[in-house]
Specification:
heterodimer, A: five-stranded antiparallel β-sheet, 57% strand, B: 116 residues, 3% helix
Chain lengths: 111, 116
C-alpha cells in the first residue's frame, strides 16, 4: 500500500462545475496535509494546506480533512480551464520531516 | 531573481555515462531536497540536506550521490546511468517555519534527464 494514494484520473469537468479531488494516507500519525498544483512541464506549487479536521477555504479552493478516515480532499468551485493541471496530495511525515507525495490526479476543465 | 535554479534543464546522455545536476537557491533556506518525478508524475523523495548535513537518504542506488558545498547549493551526481534513471529531477528548498509547518517546498524548474 502506498503511503499517499490518489486516483490518477484524468478527471474531466465542465467549466463552472465543482471539481473534487481525493486522497488517502496510511500513516495515522500524520499531522499536516498539502495540495500542490503542477501545470504540464512546470514545477509543483503549493496551493493549500490543512492540519485540523474539517474544511478550510481559500477563494475557490476548499481543503477537507478527516483524520479518522485518513482522507483529504480538495474541492475547486467554479472550475476554470486554467485549473487544468495535475494536483498532488502530500503528507508531512513527522518522523524525519519528509513530505510524501501521492501520484497526482490530472484535472481537465473543458470550456 | 530565480529562487531555486537548476542546471541543466535538459540532459540527454548514453547509458553508462556519469552526469551531474546542479541546484542553487537564493531564498536563505536551510533545507534542500532532491525529488525524482517519473513518467507517471509520481514525485519521490531522494535526499534532503539541512545546512550541508544529509538528513534524509531514501532507498536510492548508490550510483546517486548528493553533495552540498554550502547551504545554498545541492548538487546531484549520477554514475553509470541506466535507462530507468530517465526522469525529471526536481530540486526544492524549504523555509524554517514556512506555511504548513515545514510542508511548503519551493521547487526548481526541474532537470529532464533522458538516458539512451
Amino acid at each position: 500500500q502506498k503511503e499517499v494514494e490518489q486516483n490518477s484520473g484524468p478527471l474531466s469537468v465542465p467549466e463552472g462545475a465543482i471539481a473534487s479531488l481525493n486522497c488517502t494516507y496510511s500513516d495515522r500519525g500524520s499531522q499536516s496535509f498539502f495540495w500542490y498544483r503542477q501545470y504540464s512541464g512546470k514545477s509543483p506549487e503549493l496551493i493549500m494546506f490543512i492540519y485540523s479536521n474539517g474544511d478550510k477555504e481559500d477563494g475557490r479552493f476548499t481543503a477537507q480533512l478527516n483524520k479518522a478516515s485518513q482522507y483529504v480532499s480538495l474541492l475547486i468551485r467554479d472550475s476554470q480551464p486554467s485549473d487544468s493541471a495535475t494536483y498532488l496530495c502530500a503528507v508531512l511525515r513527522n518522523q524525519g520531516g519528509k513530505l510524501i507525495f501521492g501520484q497526482g490526479t490530472e484535472l481537465s476543465v473543458k470550456p | 531573481d530565480t529562487a531555486v535554479s537548476q542546471t541543466p534543464k535538459y540532459l540527454v546522455t548514453q547509458m553508462g555515462n556519469d552526469k551531474s545536476i546542479k541546484c542553487e537557491q537564493n531564498l536563505g533556506h536551510d533545507t534542500m531536497y532532491w525529488y525524482k518525478q517519473d513518467s507517471k508524475k509520481f514525485l519521490k523523495i531522494m535526499f534532503s540536506y539541512n545546512n550541508k548535513e544529509l538528513i534524509i537518504n531514501e532507498t536510492v542506488p548508490n550510483r546517486f550521490s548528493p553533495k552540498s558545498p554550502d547551504k545554498a547549493h545541492l548538487n546531484l551526481h549520477i554514475n553509470s546511468l541506466e535507462l530507468g534513471d530517465s526522469a525529471v529531477y526536481f530540486c526544492a528548498s524549504r523555509p524554517e517555519g514556512g506555511q504548513g509547518l515545514t510542508g511548503e517546498l519551493f521547487f526548481g524548474e526541474g532537470s529532464r534527464l533522458t538516458v539512451l
